[in-house]
Design goal:
Elements lengths: L8 H7 L3 H9 L12 E3 L2 E3 L6 E7 L5 H12 L2 E4 H10 L5 H9 L6 H15 L3 E5 L5 H11 L5 E6 L2 H9 L10 H24 L3 E5 L4 H27 L1
Parallel strand pairs: 3-5, 3-6, 4-5, 6-7
Antiparallel strand pairs: 1-2
Helix pairs in contact: 1-2, 2-10, 3-10, 4-5, 6-7
Bound molecules: adenosine-5'-triphosphate, ligand LCLUPRNS and magnesium ion (MG).
The ligand Nc1ccn([C@H]2C[C@H](O)[C@@H](COP(=O)(O)O)O2)c(=O)n1 binds next to helix 4 and helix 5.
């Protein structure tokens, strides 16, 4: 379990001249996570700082372009990309004990029990050697969200929501052509219902927590990425400022 650190957001809000950076910093309650973990003084004793992970949840309806944009974020900002759906599909392919249950759940457009998905994410996080994660397609439900917080012990720093009209999502999924068992009209309709009933409340939750960045997910892939880029650029600026302050 990762240790949480105190928020520095009020300090940044009052000292930064860039409003976007200040707004970003005010949302970054564990922003030391992007820094180098330089030892700090506690009661006069120098102690190494435990590094917190920097976590981005990537949410949006089926076919909204989460995976596509994650590839661009990884290329530009160097995150470790963990797709919950890909991890579950890997379990099916490896004939694991949960494989058959996962396959049936995905075919039905339903959500796999949180315990299973969070354990897969946890394993990947721990073995990755990375400290910056894009967790794609998770949390899909309140149960997912609570389970992640309980097992991993941290909240996300950023939540991206790719907001795409239903009609466009259906068109994209039917053209995806990757041989997915859930890319058929019958399952797509079920997934859209599940998204509205179970995932939208999670998105609203993060909106109320001030962590949500809504992206209009229509247009070309590059146009959409130009809405995403400034979010992470701002966090990089904040991170660099932290390192300068720590070095002083
Ligand atoms: N801006 C875009 N315009 C047109 N097609 C797109 C765009 N972005 C992604 N696509 C295509 O739409 C399909 C779905 O995209 P992607 O797999 O990234 O969605 P997703 O949100 O990850 O979906 P899922 O939740 O089902 O995994 C893919 O075939 C992708 O190439
Ligand atoms: N948190 C999650 C993520 C995914 N699943 C299952 C159900 C989804 O329809 C399917 C495909 O996911 P995608 O690749 O579209 O992100 O995987 C889940 O149960 N829980
Ligand atoms: Mg995807």
């Amino acid at each position: 379990m990762w240790r949480r650190v105190a928020s520095l957001s009020s300090f940044i809000s009052s000292s930064s001249s860039s409003s976007f950076v200040a707004q970003t910093a005010s949302r970054l309650n564990t922003w030391e996570s992007l820094t180098t973990g330089i030892p700090h003084q506690e009661n006069g004793v120098s102690v190494p700082k435990e590094k917190n992970p920097f976590i981005t949840f990537v949410l949006g309806g089926p076919g909204s372009g989460k995976g596509t944009q994650c590839i661009k974020i990884v290329e530009t900002f160097g995150f470790k990309h963990l797709s919950a759906g890909d991890l579950l599909r890997r379990e099916i392919a490896s004939n694991s004990a949960d494989g058959a249950m996962i396959l049936n759940t995905i075919k039905e457009g339903k959500i796999v029990p949180s315990q299973v998905t969070v354990k897969l994410i946890q394993k990947e996080m721990e073995s990755s050697g990375s400290n910056k994660f894009l967790i794609d397609g998770f949390p899909r439900t309140e149960e997912n969200r609570v389970s992640f917080e309980r097992i991993i012990g941290v909240e996300p720093n950023v939540v991206l929501f790719f907001d795409c009209p239903e009609e466009e999502m259906v068109k994209r999924l039917l053209n995806r052509n990757q041989g997915r068992v859930d890319d058929n009209l019958e399952t797509i309709k079920k997934r859209l219902k599940v998204f509205e009933a179970l995932s939208l409340p999670v998105i609203n939750y993060y909106s109320h927590r001030g962590k949500l960045y809504t992206i209009k997910a229509v247009g070309t892939e590059d146009e959409i990425f130009e809405q995403v880029r400034p979010i992470f650029t701002a966090f990089e600026v904040c991170s660099a400022s932290t390192m300068i302050l720590q070095a002083q």
